[in-house]
Amino acid sequence: MKPTDSIRTIKGIGEKSEKLFYKLGISTVGELLNFFPREYDIFTPIQPIQSVKEGEVVIIEGSFVTKPHMANVRNLKILSCQIKDTTAQIRVSWFNMPFLMRSLKMGMHYILRGRIVLKNGMLQMTQPKILTREEYSRQLGKMMPVYPLTAGLTNHAVTKAVTAALKGVEWESEFLPAEIRKKYELILHKKAIQTIHFPDSKKEYIIARKRLVFEEFFLFSLALHRMKELKHSKPSSYPVDGDVYDNALLEILPYELTSGQKKAWEEIKKDMQSGKVMNRLIQGDVGSGKTVIAMLALAAIAKSGHQGAIMVPTEVLAKQHYEEFCAYLEPLGIRIGLLTGSMTAVQKRKMYQKTADQEVDILVGTHALIQEKVEYANLALIVTDEQHRFGVRQRELFSEKGKDPHMLVMSATPIPRTLAIILYGDLDVSVIDVLPANRLPIKNCAVGTNYRPQAYRFMEKEVREGHQVYIICPMVEESENTEAENVLDYTNSLKDMMPPSIRIEYLHGKLKPAQKNEIMASFAAHQIDILVSTTVIEVGINVPNATVMMIENAERFGLAQLHQLRGRVGRGSAQSYCIFMAGNASKETMERLRIIEGSNDGFYVAREDLKLRGPGDLFGIRQSGELFFKLADIYQDANELRQANEAAASYTQQDVSLLCKKYDGLRQKLQEYTGEVYL
Ligand code: ADP
Ligand code: MG
């Protein structure tokens, strides 16, 4: 079978499992092979029973000291007995496997592998697998893949399908040129894919991962370099006359721009006046005031008689920007439009029409802005806010909506400048490195759950003083279905604990966009005092009157994400607070939380987090989970990123379109990667 063949060509995959795989975004053999394990289940050596701990999957060896006993609990048949080695004894139990009753013998020796759980105050092993000595020695040290799953599809089924695919696939020829593989010591793609699914050892895994990370970065870098070459010093059809930069807007702003904002704005003006196309990244920590910079640029474009558009990752944020822009720009005679996915077909059609007829000057919206149906009359400036939530391809699609429009990209991801230059290689970079002067630094504390009553009292006090509060609800590990329930339960018990005069509402990802917008709007209008929410509020939301943020289960988030969440407070002149509530107070958890407790600087936090985790921590919480890489992590794999960029640069210099025959494979791969026709 070929990588492009349907997964139905794999033996054992029928109509039903095809649908399930489809839910995971897998429809071809190649996609299945590129569906990497989330982590590995490692066969560790036999442990003395005395040393097993709750939550671990372990292997124990011993003999049964009681007869297997069968109990019926509701609809379950539970089989249990006691197993003993020289150090201790422990209960083991199986559900609905009554047939074991006959085969398990008292006094005989068994090797069992299973999870240790705490039940009625006692440790026990549940649902263990019985291993023969041969199985045990064969699998010892092996890493078994654990895939991210969807309901109805087991890990076993995915493993089986991957095994079959690896066996039957006709591999395409290697696409990385040999000189690159040699220089950076990279194994073949084929070998790396085989190994990433079934590594024999951690060492092999690392080598395979290195190759795949490199290729991911390399293709990314090639695409960027090519974009840069092609765009380089392109003349712009939308020059902006210096006269339009009147100070009308600056005058009605209720504050003066910070030095960082002024500098960024000067750079933008210069770009747009230069007669060439602007391609600029504005990088600034959360709360540094990027929105107003976008607004100034868009206003200048509108005043010049052109159109501009700003794309944001969520509906709530789109609405927020839209309202702010209306408030400032409509009095100046600029017409603003809103376009989001949740609007009715009629509303959308109207907005398409207005956009095509240039009856709106600035369009604010979500991904809806790059849908096929949207046609712009005269698109001269595109802005993407929170760029880390979009892919390079989406940025390109947006750009293709106009005829070489100016481009402004905004990001708060705290990446060091050296990395930013690589990751945004096609852009010039402006950094806003100061926060508005009226801000007091956020006061942080990392605490255990026993502090919760005190935290609630503190919130009450802040609410009484006219401020507002966010609580980020505890995360549920498994399915998203329970997310809503969880937020609801938390909100209900919070209501019981707070005086009835305090207005509490909740927000989660499963609500309809219209409901989300409504709740955010009433929070912004101070009709809600405490908002219990999942991380949906992470991105960009701006309610300066909110002064307290409490994050439950803070240990489950990456520090960069905690920093983004924290950025929802400290946006006004009042003192703000962030409470990181740790669900477990283990040493590692507290050590990590101390970093963010000790600093409000996103760059510092990201750097320290990396140091703490060290490059050896392969399955740690991904720092940059939202950045568009599948396997690679820009912090952990910064070295590969640099190498891949260097390699890509040398290729692009030689031959920008990779026309040379020997690059056939690479060119094709790049075409798949960027999803475009590439000559
Ligand atoms: P971010 O960079 O995170 O997108 P925003 O643009 O949302 O930040 O700005 C955060 C808050 O700071 C907003 O309430 C905005 O009005 C305010 N703000 C922006 N610039 C200044 C300034 N120069 N002085 C005071 N407040 C400012
Ligand atoms: Mg923002």
UniProtKB/TrEMBL annotation:
NCBIfam families for this protein: PRK10917.1-3, PRK10917.2-2, recG
PANTHER family assigned: ATP-DEPENDENT DNA HELICASE HOMOLOG RECG, CHLOROPLASTIC
Coiled-coil segments on the chain, per record: none
Family statement: Belongs to the helicase family. RecG subfamily.
Gene that produces this protein: recG
EC numbers on record: 5.6.2.4
Protein name (record): ATP-dependent DNA helicase RecG
Single GO MF descriptor: helicase activity
Keyword DNA repair carried by entry: yes
Domain of life: Bacteria
Gene3D superfamilies with a match to the protein in the record: Nucleic acid-binding proteins, P-loop containing nucleotide triphosphate hydrolases
UniProt-listed PROSITE patterns: HELICASE_ATP_BIND_1, HELICASE_CTER
Domain called Helicase C-terminal: residue spans: 451-611
Keywords per UniProt: ATP-binding, DNA damage, DNA recombination, DNA repair, DNA-binding, Helicase, Hydrolase, Isomerase, Nucleotide-binding
Function: Plays a critical role in recombination and DNA repair. Helps process Holliday junction intermediates to mature products by catalyzing branch migration. Has replication fork regression activity, unwinds stalled or blocked replication forks to make a HJ that can be resolved. Has a DNA unwinding activity characteristic of a DNA helicase with 3'-5' polarity.
Domain Helicase ATP-binding intervals: 271-432
Reaction catalyzed: Couples ATP hydrolysis with the unwinding of duplex DNA by translocating in the 3'-5' direction; ATP + H2O = ADP + phosphate + H(+)
Alphabetized InterPro entries for the sequence: ATP-dep_DNA_helicase_RecG (IPR004609), DEAD/DEAH_box_helicase_dom (IPR011545), Helicase_ATP-bd (IPR014001), Helicase_C-like (IPR001650), NA-bd_OB-fold (IPR012340), P-loop_NTPase (IPR027417), RecG/Mfd (IPR047112), RecG_dom3_C (IPR045562)
